[in-house]
Amino acid sequence: MQTTDIVIIGAGAAGMLCAATAGARGRKVVLIDHAAKLAEKIRISGGGRCNFTNLQVRPECYLSANPHYCKSALARYTAQDFIKLMARHGLTYHEKTLGQLFCDQGSGAIIQMLKAEVDAGGALWRMHTPIEQIERLDDGFMVRTAAETWRCASLVIASGGLSIPQIGASAFGYELARRFGLEIVPTAPALVPLTFQPQDLWSELAGVAVPDATATCGRTRFREAVLLTHKGLSGPAILQISSYWQPGQPISIDLLPDRAITEVLAAGNRDALLANVLADAIPKRLAHAVVAALGENRPLKQYPAKTLHQLEERLKRWQVVPSGTEGYRKAEVTRGGVATSALDSRTMQAKTVPGLFFIGEVVDVTGWLGGYNFQWAWSSGHVAGSHA
Ligand code: FDA
What does each C-alpha distance from 317 to 108, 255, 314, 382 come to in angstroms? Predict the structure, then answer.
């Protein structure tokens, strides 16, 4: 049996930041991952440009049974800290909408930067290495792989969530937490497209994008683009609201926020066909489909107020009840996870199992779309790396 200070399981975003932080403190680290390729999730993120953080990070942008849990870690390692790290490696970024920061050099450069930081701390890499056994010892843990057995004082679980099983996601972290008696908040796909029953679908509208819409579920509302798909709804506003949606709940969509339909129609030519007038405000295919649902497309002046009111209902208070989601294969993240009540928010350590830490997506902290999830991975990884 070989000895090390820390074994980290999962060499993704959180695991690498943790390994780099612990290594910089002089801790001996072994980083184990069952995937052959390093950090595939970072590679595919942000369309290959990695939306690595958000300038508007704040605790309200995270879902968790304990909304306060993320505060300490987010305050201790901020978006600016990660930006400084990038600057040290000569990496630059640009801001897209809503504070989202993307790496100019692409996601591969972020992976190389993190790898270099881990190497600088002297950690040992064990890629393509499944875990065969973990046991608790009097003074730490035993971690066995096919080729080696490690004894370590601290064990950090950074194995991520269930999304995108094709590139290595597994339930490992949840199962281990359960084995050690920690509670798991039920998991579900989040930041995921919503699906509908075939009879409720709008296949003729698949591909229509409404650039500015609101999606409301309960008391939560997001305003961004909505995309109509062959299976249902997608686009940023829908992905965001999907994290809050519970099966059976209706979602209300306003396809024309800030404008009343009466205002759009008042600005139109009364002799023009209704669909053409509407097409000044919403995508043409959508305008035609909405009018077709009301009957024949006639000049605006021929419509009674009652019909125009129906139009208002359909476009500004469109109520839908999704039948489900596109699941973990399409979900950007997993909601739920290791209960924050079982962990110390200042260290990420399990309260009842000294030396055992959980970081990143495996924990019941789920960020909004737009760089929030990577920031949680960096922040929680840094905190654990400072204490493990
Ligand atoms: P992560 O999934 O990164 O790493 C977990 C690691 O553990 C993996 O390397 C895996 O192979 C390993 N592992 C799993 N089970 C194991 C086992 N049994 N044994 C050993 N190793 C095991 N977020 C964001 O903020 N901005 C963005 O632009 C995007 N974009 C994006 C696009 C797509 C398509 C997806 C799917 C996700 C995003 N995300 C995102 C979310 C972001 O990728 C995610 O929140 C973080 O990668 C989570 O970091 P972790 O380190 O916790 O898990």
Answer: 43, 8, 6, 44
Contacts of 280 (CB under 8 A, 6+ apart): 264, 267, 268
Q: How far apart are CA 6 and CA 31, in angstroms?
A: 8
pTM over 0.90: yes
Helices 284-294, 305-316: axis angle to 10 degrees equals 130
330 occurs within a structural domain? no
Q: Is 204 a domain residue?
A: yes
Task: Summarize pLDDT for 249-307 with one digit per residue, the tens.
Answer: 999 999 999 999 989 999 999 999 999 999 999 999 999 999 998 889 999 999 998 88
- Burial readout 140-175 (b: 16 or more C-beta within 10 A, e: otherwise): bbbbebeeeebbbbbbbbbbbbbbbeeebbbbbbbe
> What is the best residue among 16, 21, 41, 134 to mutate for testing ligand 1's pocket, by most ligand atoms within 8 Å of CB?
41
What pLDDT digit, counting tens, does each position of 298-351 carry?
Answer: 999 999 988 888 899 899 999 999 999 999 999 999 999 999 999 999 999 999
Rounded Cα–Cα distance for residues 260 and 210 (Å)? 16
Confidence bin at 89 (pLDDT 50/70/90): very high
| Domain extent for 177 | 2-188+335-387
> How many angstroms separate the alpha carbon of residue 149 from the centre of ligand 1?
26
Residue 40 lies in a domain: yes
Is the shortest distance between the CB of 57 and ligand 1 below 6 Å? Answer: no
Same domain, 124 and 152: yes
Give how many domains the chain has, as a whole number. Answer: 2
User: Which residues touch 289 (CB under 8 Å, ≥6 apart)?
Assistant: 202, 204, 205
Strand partners, 350: 343
Determine the Cα–Cα distance for residues 157 and 173; give it in Å rounded to an integer: 6
Q: Rounded to the nearest whole angstrom, what is the distance from the C-alpha of residue 41 to the centroid of ligand 1?
A: 5
Q: Report which residue type is found at 82.
A: F
